[in-house]
Each structure stands twice: as C-alpha cells, then as structure tokens.
Amino acid sequence: MAGAPAESGPGAAAGEQLPQQHVACQVFPERLAQGNPKQGFLSSFFTNNQKCQLMLLKTLETNPYVKLLLDAMKHSGCAVNKERHFSCEDCDGNVSGGFDASTSQIVLCQNNIGNQAHMNRVVTHELIHAFDHCRAHVHWFTDVRHLACSEVRAANLSGDCSLVNEIFRLHFGLKQHHQTCVRDRAILSILAVRNISKEVARKAVDDVFESCFNDHEPFGRIPHNKTYARYAHRDFQNRDRYYSNI
Amino acid sequence: MADHGDWRPPRPCEAYRAEWKLCRSARHFLHHYYVHGERPACEQWRRDLASCREWEEHRSAEAQRSLCESERARVQAARKHTLVWALRQSPPADWHLPLPQEEKDQ
C-alpha cells in the first residue's frame, strides 16, 4: 500500500472503513470532518506517526483480541514482528487501515485513527486478514469471493459490528442486525480496494456468507467484548488438553 | 475418545462454570439476540458442569462419556460448513522476508 492509492496497483488486499463514513471508494477523497474520531491527550504533544506507534504498541501488549490472534499466528508459523509487519502511514480518503498481501504488511492510517479503541479494532480487523493469509491459500487479487470471505470474518469477529458501534453510526436495529451490519461493511471494504460494482461485491458476499460468517477461527466464538476474547484465548491456550481428551 | 487412566475433562470444571454463567447473563442474551435473533441455549453448559463435577468426585464413566459426546458435538458444529478456500500445509514463504528494497529506501 505504501502511500499509493489502494486501487492503483496490487496494493491493499483488504481495507477497513472509518466507522461513521458511508463513502466507500478511495476515488472520492473528500473527508467529512465529523467522521474523525475524538482526538485525545496525545494529539497535543506527538505527531500522527508517534501517536500511531504508541497506540499500536499498547494494542499489541494489552488487547485480548490481538493477543489471541498473535498467538494463533505464531502457532501457524507466522510470528508477527511489529517493525516488519506493521506500518503507520498517511492514507488517502477515509480508510483506517489495510492488509497488503504482496508484502505481508498491515498498514495503519495514522491520519485516520484517532483513539485507542479505534486502533484496537483496526489492528484486530487487519490481523484477521493476516491470519487468513497465513493459514489458507487466499486468492486476494484473483477471486473476489475469497476477499469477501475474509471481509465477512473481519467484520464479524473484530467488533466492527458491535451494537454500540452500530448505534454510534446511527444504524438502529436489534434482532439479527449484526448480520446485516457484517454484510454491509464487508461490501464497503471490498469496494474500497477493488474497482468493481456494488452488485458484484454484494453477490460475492452473499455467495460466501453462510460459510464465512460461521468460521470463527481462531476465536471459536464471536467475541462480543473483551471478556469473550479472554475466554477464547484461554480456550486456545488449553487446546492441547482439549483435543487429547475428547 | 481417550479411554485410559490419565483421561481428564477437556476443560477444567471452572471453565464450564464460567461459560454457563456467561451464557445465562443478561448481556449475553442481548448479544445472542442481536446476532442470531433468538435466545441462547445454556442448558448444555449446565449439564457439562455437572458431568465435570461428577467425574472429579466419583470418576464416573458415564460423566466422562457425556462430556466427550458433548464436546465432540461442539467441534462438529463448528466444522460443518465447507471452507471457501484451501488450507495451507505451511505458512507463506515470504512472510518473514525483508520488505522490498524500494520500501526500505523511502
């Protein structure tokens, strides 16, 4: 991705949108001021890059979603190195981050991630793509169904579609609304990195939804909050005992 | 199923209790309804907790059988959908390679 617009080259394999934005594609770079998350204490004394690095470090060291993903990736032979596999950069448009499969690197958009909670969610989202890349032959650039599957999983498992986040986006719905959100955000993420029509993106998501929505690896469940993520991590650490006794 | 002297429950009994308690919480009801549009089913966690405790106290063979059956059903349920992609036998060859030179020079 490295500073180039996502759709101009191999670039980002998978992207993540700011929570409040509806503009999906980077060919429209207008940024709506109200889309930026609230700036915290760090904004007065540090550059965007320094803030990004500090928040990333805190996420990697303390967030239970991320710690499980890092463990699972290490177990699969893809140990993550902060300097090698993460890059804080300025991005065009309103994308929060992306996973570049051609360089095995997660890009974090330092000009669009404003607070720790947002960083936690973006890192979780992109690590799910990295995890999929590590454990499976994902045809990121040649099969839109594969991209759709990873985006469904990322939207489902990262907290993107939590009830609270949806309410902040002014999307009000309760019964099974989570699934609607996952579909919609997967479509938006696909459109951010692929120059295809919304209909093609929607069809790809529909084709893979049943399988990919129910693939909860490595969590074993949908982690609705940090408690679920901690339980999932506990189960992952216990897996040897588990599988040898069933 | 491992049927030898050193079998023990797949999870510590405390884990079954924690899952049952979480499942029955109001928060989990809300999360589950938000995702699935129906109320959660928690009875199996309660049965598994009882089996776990039964095995710990009496080394009951029936408790062992019941726990194994329950956990295998959970594993089967998690694996019932065909994957969209093929799983790898080994990680990507370029995962640990240095970044391309032009990136390093920027």
TrEMBL record, chain A:
One term of GO molecular function: metal ion binding
| UniProt-listed Enzyme Commission number(s) | 3.4.24.-
Keyword field contains Metal-binding: yes
Q: Which residues form a coiled coil?
A: none
**So which domain of life are we looking at?**
Eukaryota
User: Record's family?
Assistant: Belongs to the peptidase M76 family.
Protein name per the record: Mitochondrial inner membrane protease ATP23
TrEMBL record, chain B:
Under the heading InterPro entries, the entry gives: Pants/Emi1-like
Instruction: From the UniProt record, list the coiled-coil ranges.
Output: none
Where does the record say this protein resides?
Answer: Synaptic cleft
Q: Name one GO cellular component term.
A: synaptic cleft
Principal place where this protein is found?
Answer: other
Q: Which family does it belong to?
A: Belongs to the UPF0545 family.
> Which protein are we looking at?
Synaptic plasticity regulator PANTS
Q: Which organism is it from?
A: Suricata suricatta
